[in-house]
């Protein structure tokens, strides 16, 4: 229906009907309601839209196809809000959006009257902007009830008012024993809000906020904020609790970033690291500048590794309260039991790292990098396509409770990678507690990218800051591995090996004692034998080795009658070293006596005949 004269709503219920109003004064008067159900589009062609009653389009779209002035005293609620016109629409009354704000043309003067809502159901986003947005916007970030822990956040707006009038209205921010400088009082005075100064050459790069009454928030900057929960007065005086007391919604009001946003060594207040100091080691903390999800893989990057790193508060024990998780574009994988993947959420801050220490890179965000869709959770999961092993470590008592792991590391196999450190390999960023990594080329890796599996592959597991007299459990997850490959966990401390299921999860408990060797960095290895490389005509199932286990450094090999000619026999240990080799003429039974006494453990017997290879496992006792 179209009206060319002032149109007043007394009571109107629209059920899945799209309506348009052209050059009219649409007025929802006090006590009246304009309520829709379903995906209704209210297309307003220009004029004045006044809401003094209840205008609720919670599942639909409010569309301005001509310049509109929004007036009145009550908030307009809509799922989506779109503009497609020349000129300017002005908000003199509040509009609350839960879905997407889309500006195809024209200017929206938000005038501090637009709220982009974030709640348990999702977060409102700003779709790729082809017009412009002026004036202040309020952007929310819902944080579900979870660990009382730090989170890497960004406000999505640049404020012209202080932190105390924005984020601090929703949660405690501490840094004083007296309550000075706009902080909540604690007996310790420990700060709970930090930025990252990548120019620092001593200590760490973290720098606490000095005064919440004198510091604004910036949409380009990343922040580390301890989320205790809401501002319940008694909460701040209690001893530290493991979990938030309630979910919260952080809110910040300011100008949104639109158009191209580039981070470089000259960007303020979040420059890309240009120092060669080992303290910040080429890392920079930046924020997603957009109120939308962006795809890490599509962002324009120069001089930076292909991985970004976040702090996931779900990782670790209640004492750890989180851990670093990396996502690598080359491997399409993160390094842990985390939802972190290629999608960087609105309100999310993250670390990037220079490819070359001391040489600043750059990263550019474009409107075309936005996904333009509503986000239903802070992190989303992805299924990797490469052959991928995720090794997790838990406190054994917490594994039984379904808790998150203390830490995790990942290795992937693909022909695009080599054994050198390169794109796809992600250096481990220490969390300060127990750290688990793979060790390759003298580098600790959160993600170890390797070429296609060879006949024998060895992954060196590195334990860092593991503690004495504790019960831990490894858990392995394999994806896209050939079932013919046979992985083992080798425990050098106990001289034991455990077969790992490469099509299922395997749990392996281990204990540390007062003996430092029980938690040494190199206690464990994972060894692969790739049986898929064997020739099926020379099948290991047709070859028998006995006795097995071997007790007197001698064993027999029973060969099928189809094998003729020369057979090469090798004994190989779990790290791929050939310890014994001989050549024999094929016969029904041959006896092998290595020329040195082999130590107790697992070995592989590799037999090669006429270019065909077969592998058997034996145990030396």
What order do the helices and strands come in, and which of them pair?
Layout: E1 7-15, E2 19-21, E3 24-37, E4 41-44, E5 47-51, E6 54-64, E7 68-72, E8 76-91, E9 95-97, E10 100-109, E11 114-116, E12 118-119, E13 122-123, E14 125-126, E15 132-134, E16 137-143, E17 149-153, E18 157-158, E19 174-176, E20 184-185, E21 193-196, E22 206-208, E23 223-227, E24 248-256, E25 261-263, E26 283-287, E27 294-295, E28 300-302, E29 307-312, E30 323-328, E31 333-334, E32 343-344, E33 349-353, E34 362-365, E35 387-395, H1 396-399, E36 407-413, E37 426-427, E38 435-440, E39 443-450, E40 456-464, E41 471-479, E42 485-491, E43 496-499, E44 506-511, E45 524-530, E46 544-546, E47 555-558, E48 566-572, E49 578-585, E50 589-592, E51 601-609, E52 612-620
Question: Can you give keywords for this protein?
Answer:
621 residues; 4 domains; 5-stranded parallel β-barrel; 1 helix; 52 strands; disordered N terminus
């Amino acid at each position: 229906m179209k009206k060319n004269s002032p149109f007043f709503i007394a009571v109107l219920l629209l059920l899945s009907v799209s309506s348009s109003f052209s050059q009219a004064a649409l007025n929802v008067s006090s006590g009246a309601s304009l309520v829709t159900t379903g995906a209704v589009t209210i297309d307003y062609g220009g004029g004045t839209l006044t809401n003094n009653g209840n205008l609720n389009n919670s599942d639909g779209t409010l569309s301005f196809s001509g310049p509109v002035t929004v007036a009145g005293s009550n908030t307009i609620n809509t799922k989506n809000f779109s503009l497609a016109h020349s000129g300017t629409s002005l908000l003199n009354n509040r509009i609350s959006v839960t879905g997407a704000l889309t500006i195809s043309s024209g200017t929206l003067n938000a005038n501090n009257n637009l709220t982009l809502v974030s709640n348990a159901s999702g977060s409102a986003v700003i779709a790729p902007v082809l017009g412009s947005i002026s004036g202040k916007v309020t952007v929310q970030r819902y944080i579900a009830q979870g660990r009382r822990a730090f989170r890497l956040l960004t406000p999505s707006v640049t404020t012209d008012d202080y932190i105390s009038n924005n984020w601090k209205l929703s949660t405690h921010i501490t840094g004083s024993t007296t309550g000075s400088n706009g902080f909540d009082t604690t007996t310790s005075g420990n700060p709970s809000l930090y930025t990252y100064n990548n120019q620092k050459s001593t200590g760490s790069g973290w720098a606490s906020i000095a005064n919440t009454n004198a510091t604004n928030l910036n949409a380009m900057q990343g922040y580390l904020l301890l989320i205790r929960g809401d501002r319940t007065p008694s909460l701040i005086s209690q001893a530290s609790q493991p979990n938030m007391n309630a979910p919260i919604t952080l809110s910040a009001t300011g100008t949104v970033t639109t158009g191209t946003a580039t981070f470089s060594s000259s960007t303020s207040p979040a420059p890309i690291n240009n120092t060669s100091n080992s303290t910040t080691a080429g890392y920079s903390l930046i924020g997603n500048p957009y109120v939308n999800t962006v795809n890490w893989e599509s962002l324009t990057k120069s001089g930076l590794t292909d991985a970004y790193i976040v702090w996931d508060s779900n990782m670790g024990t209640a004492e750890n309260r989180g851990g670093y998780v990396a996502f690598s574009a080359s491997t399409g994988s993160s390094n842990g039991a985390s939802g972190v993947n290629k999608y960087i959420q609105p309100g999310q801050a993250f670390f990037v790292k220079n490819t070359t220490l001391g040489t600043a890179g750059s990263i550019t965000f474009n409107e075309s990098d936005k996904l333009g869709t509503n986000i239903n959770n802070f992190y989303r999961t992805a299924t990797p396509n490469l052959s991928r092993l995720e090794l997790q470590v838990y406190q054994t008592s917490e594994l039984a409770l379904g808790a998150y792991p203390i830490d995790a590391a990942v290795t992937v196999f693909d022909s695009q990678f080599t054994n050198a450190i390169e794109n796809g390999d992600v250096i481990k960023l220490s969390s300060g507690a127990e750290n688990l990594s793979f060790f390759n080329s003298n580098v600790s890796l959160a993600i170890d990218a390797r070429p296609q599996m060879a006949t024998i592959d060895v992954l060196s597991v590195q334990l860092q800051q593991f503690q004495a007299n504790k019960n831990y459990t490894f858990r392995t997850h394999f994806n896209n591995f050939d079932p013919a490959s046979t992985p083992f966990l080798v425990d050098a401390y106990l001289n034991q090996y455990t077969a790992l299921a490469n099509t299922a999860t395997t749990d392996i408990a281990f204990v540390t004692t007062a003996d430092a060797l029980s938690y040494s960095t190199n206690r464990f290895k994972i060894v692969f034998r790739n049986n898929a490389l064997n020739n099926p005509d020379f099948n290991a199932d047709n070859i028998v080795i006995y006795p097995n286990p071997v007790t007197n450094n001698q064993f027999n090999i029973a060969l099928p009658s189809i094998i003729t000619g020369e057979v090469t026999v090798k004994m190989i240990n779990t790290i791929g070293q050939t310890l014994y080799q001989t050549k024999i003429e094929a016969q029904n039974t041959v006896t092998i006596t290595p020329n040195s006494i082999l130590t107790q453990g697992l070995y592989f017997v590799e037999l090669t005949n006429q270019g065909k290879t077969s592998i058997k496992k034996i145990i030396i006792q």
